[in-house]
Amino acid sequence: MEVRPVFLVLLDISGYTRFATAHKGNILHAELIIGDLLESIIRKSRYPLVVHELLGDAVTLYVQSEPLPEVAKEIRLQVAGIFEAFRQREGVLISDCRLCSCEACRSVGMLRLKAILHFGQAVFTAVQGFSKIAGPDVILAHRLLKNSIPSHEYMLETEPFYAIAGPFPDGPVELRKERYEDLGTLEIRVRFPSSEEAKLVAPKRPLLSAVWMNLRGAIYILATTFGKPRKQYRNLEAQNESVRSA
User: Which helix (H) or strand (E) is 27 found in, with range?
Assistant: First the structure.
């Protein structure tokens, strides 16, 4: 068990609660779609980011590092790339889900991504061969997912992270303050996507792609209903091992 300096990145898919309605078919289709979007996030992340945890519609990543500007800027660059990959995959899903009339498939375009970037310290422990991080800074980063920002798509940087990374090279950011009863007032910097960046385009996809997506949804419902093992996301520890050896 050690306390180490760490960059933290939380990526959360907004709109999931209203996306998955009480109808079982909708929920299972929603899970399949969210799984595809989470995969697009994980595939885009690379060294030095390490995937730490998947929880519902969120991914936690970290970089164990001293407060180096080049590391912070690389993280910021990767997160921007993740936003782009997320939008591209969402556009494909909008096209591929067109044959299904369930609420989840008809509402794919409502999903958005938000990111929390923070620098602090974390307690590193090993649990069954996996690295586990915890501590006040990890809690702070998660608490920031609940805020007063009037948007569901943004990159939020805490003051410690922003102080290391420096100003954004591609546009202004908004300085805001968030108050929490147990944490006090926190200064944050928020970058919202430009109208061009936020544009969601559903590419023209062959009918076969939509048929296959519809079939995947049916198979997923049957497999889940009859208790067959759900295909897991990629082995995160194997991915992280390749990151550590890079």
Answer: helix 24-44
